[in-house]
Amino acid sequence: MRTITKKPEVLAPAGTLGKLKTAIRYGADAVYIGGNAFSLRRRAGNFTIDEMKEGIAFAKEHNAKIYVAANMVTHENDAKGAGEFFRSVRDIGIDAVIVSDPALIEICATEAEGLPIHLSTQASATNYETLNFWKEEGLERVVLAREVGMDEIKEIRRKTDVELEVFIHGAMCISYSGRCVLSNHMSMRDANRGGCSQSCRWKYDLFEVDGENDRQSLLGGEPTEDFSMSAVDMSMIHHIPDLVEAGVESLKIEGRMKSIHYVSTVSNVYREAIDTYCKDPDNYKFNPAWEEELWKVAQRELATGFYYGTPDENQQLFGKRRKIPVYRFIGQVLDYDEETGIATIEQRNNFGIGDEVEFYGPGFTHHYQKVEQMWDEKGEPIDRAPHPLMKFKMKVDAPVQPYDMMRKKK
Amino acid sequence: MFELVATAESVKQAEQLVDAGIDKLYIGEDDFGLRLPASFTTEEIAEITEIAHNKGKKVCVAVNAIMHNDRIKTVIPYLKELEKITVDEITVGDPGVIHLMKKNDIKLSYIYDAQTMVTSANQINFWVKRGAKGAVLAREIPYEELEKMAKQVTIPLEILVYGATCIHQSLRPLVENYVNFTEQKTKTEKERGLFLSEKKDPDTHYSVYEDQNGTHIFATDDVNLLPYLEKLVEVGLTTWKLDGVFTRGDDFVKIAHIFAQAKQAFKEKCWSEELMNELQEKLLSLHPKERTLDAGFFTMDSSDVK
């Protein structure tokens, strides 16, 4: 039986230390985080050096890696302190930094020797000669532009040996990343320095100029649908065999701003799908439960971006939006007593007796049940768990483990 | 040293621009160059180069596209052709092209032009070490930063003094997708004159068109730095580009001539407010009526941008 031993890495986003640990527990081989400087997600929880140290210790225990995104495009003075920053992340044991700005690449290469550099998707690397350029500059890995198709990736793989990383899940820029300054011009917020105001998702009218130099709506009168550049999100869950066979080293999940619920769910699904394929590729069968699971944390419709052709109107958010059922993260398991079948849980959202809930955990374990018995910390029976972060006990129908999560359909 | 660079939309206009006082023509073919007024064949590029060289002027060819595998394969034959034609320079934005030039011993001078991504002196000096002979500045740089940058860079930094600013490039056919969804039909190329406007700000006017490099969207206001040329001269930013993608024909040639007069006045140290006002008035009368002008990020403070 054929098996695949060179599995691609599942790379998950981690906006906080809690999310970092969750992603790794739920199967991520590596996580990417932002430092307090030079990162493109100003509003994502970014890590201090001490938090990074704690993350590194945790990752080492679990044989996982941590990359630090320093992908801003610097203006004069923005690069101040970058050398020291790169040296300190190198010295505490960060595995690589993700950079797009050549000035930062140079600073990193000369002032923090030995720290591997990954080229960010912001640099729009779309062909193998570009990768060869960066390889000669000493970069270890290139995150390809999201505009690169599957056949192009395969050709790139044949013609270069720098490591390849591709996005497989999450929200997408509608532009070539880095080549969009809508936000700069429309709201004075620099998209390439962490200020993106997502102007692409706003509503616009499309006009032409008539002979009299007056503007005319292209669709005449009151158009029924506004112009927008809003893209649906990406999911490559149906194409795991293609991704693995293309020989890319790392499969990246977008979302440093996303929740623990999202990070745990998406990491869990891709871990399971990739393991399933690599274990026995010739008898691989797609499991519809993977996709169902992804819909539970989806915010928009899902599609495959540029992997299989240029995205048409169906990959943009026009018309009536698909109704996506909302699932709420309601609790996290702290402990479980095998003898009594009682779990200790920390609440995340209000729920109570009679609710249909779902437990899920690392290794793609799941069980569904009705909540029947709950007790507070003193052992008194309760009907609901109304308080944020309150600890309580409940009877569960199947064994659970610490760090398993509970969710409920809204 | 002053240098006036201008795009050309035809062989005829190229000749007129040279006569109007332009030092360098910026032309190219859409497969390799971004957002040009016209896409020229190599024969046309050769013809324009001959015209320019006969009058002691230069030609720079746009090779600044983001290239996918299919195009990076064809770029070397193209560059060899350009070498044969003896064009003076090319612009490059994709490091793959730089890699290939070195590997194939292509001797063309290149100017680094990655559009929005050229925002600091250290970035530019990175490319200088890798052979760049010039760089095209991003449009989103306030003057106080330009001043600092100019001090740290020894190669010419090209700055847009007149013309449209691209603010978005997507590989998706955004207009086509929209008209398909709304079951309309329209052409989407730049001659069509389509533009977008924000729902919440109807005064905005973002020109939009599609070509083989994707969808291009432009800022409401075209740039005009004529009133600020003195500040550019003060800090040594004297490579001035004029972009005619939305200003066509004779009007663009006349505007080029205005900047040539300004250049001449600086050279002869007779630039005055009076002359500036006179030229500015002329420029405003020639600029397309449906388009507005301002100084863009030039007059902003660094702290205005979050």
Describe the SSE topology.
The complex is a heterodimer of chains A (410) and B (306).
Chain A: E1 9-13, H1 17-25, E2 30-34, H2 49-61, E3 65-69, H3 82-92, E4 96-99, H4 102-111, E5 117-119, H5 128-136, E6 141-143, H6 150-159, E7 163-170, H7 182-187, E8 204-209, E9 215-217, E10 233-235, H8 240-245, E11 250-253, H9 260-279, H10 288-295, E12 302-303, E13 327-337, E14 342-347, E15 351-352, E16 356-361, E17 365-370, E18 374-375, E19 381-382, E20 384-385, E21 391-395, E22 405-409
Parallel strand pairs in A: 1-2, 1-11, 2-3, 3-4, 4-5, 5-6, 6-7, 7-11, 10-12
Antiparallel strand pairs in A: 7-10, 8-9, 13-14, 13-22, 14-21, 15-20, 16-17, 16-22, 18-19, 18-21
Chain B: E1 3-7, H1 11-19, E2 24-28, H2 42-54, E3 58-63, H3 69-72, H4 75-85, E4 89-92, H5 95-103, E5 109-112, H6 121-129, E6 132-136, H7 143-152, E7 157-163, E8 166-170, H8 174-181, E9 195-198, E10 201-211, E11 214-218, E12 221-224, H9 229-235, E13 239-242, H10 249-267, H11 273-286, E14 292-294
Describe the model.
Chain A: GO terms for molecular function: peptidase activity. Chain A: It holds the Pfam family Peptidase_U32. Chain A: This is U32 family peptidase. Chain A: Belongs to the peptidase U32 family. Chain A: Keywords: Hydrolase, Protease. Chain B: InterPro entries: Peptidase_U32, RNA/ubiquinone_mod_enzymes. The complex is a heterodimer of chains A (about 400) and B (about 300). Chain A is α/β, with parallel strands linked by helices. Chain A has two domains: about 10-170 and about 230-315, Copper homeostasis (CutC) domain (TIM Barrel); about 325-410, Beta Barrel (Elongation Factor Tu (Ef-tu), domain 3), CATH 2.40.30. Chain A is about 25% helix and about 25% strand. Chain A is built from ten helices and 22 strands. Chain A has helices at about 15-25, 50-60, 80-90, 100-110, 130-135, 150-160, 180-185, 240-245, 260-280, 290-295, and strands spanning about 10-15, 30-35, 65-70, 95-100, 115-120, 140-145, 165-170, 205-210, 215, 235, 250-255, 300-305, 325-335, 340-345, 350, 355-360, 365-370, 375, 380, 385, 390-395, 405-410. In chain A, the strands form four sheets. Chain A has an eight-stranded parallel beta barrel with strand order 1-2-3-4-5-6-7-11, surrounded by six helices. In chain A, α3 (about 80-90) packs across α4 (about 100-110) and α9 packs antiparallel against α10 (about 290-295). The longest helix of chain A is centred in the middle third of the chain and has 20 residues, at about 260-280. Chain B has two domains: about 5-165 and about 220-305, TIM Barrel; about 165-220, no CATH class. The longest helix of chain B is centred in the last third of the chain and has 19 residues, at about 250-265. With about 300 residues, chain B is of the alpha/beta class. The model of chain B has no long low-confidence stretch (mean pLDDT about 95). In chain B, the strands form two sheets. Chain B has an eight-stranded parallel barrel with strand order 1-2-3-4-5-6-7-13, surrounded by five helices. A four-stranded antiparallel sheet of chain B has the order 8-11-10-9. Chain B has helices spanning about 10-20, 40-55, 70, 75-85, 95-105, 120-130, 145-150, 175-180, 230-235, 250-265, 275-285, and strands at about 5, 25-30, 60-65, 90, 110, 130-135, 155-165, 165-170, 195-200, 200-210, 215-220, 220-225, 240, 290-295. Chain B contains eleven helices and 14 strands. Chains A and B meet through α4, α5, α6, α7 and β8 of A and α3, α5, α6, α7 and β8 of B. β8 of chain A pairs antiparallel with β9 (about 195-200) of chain B.
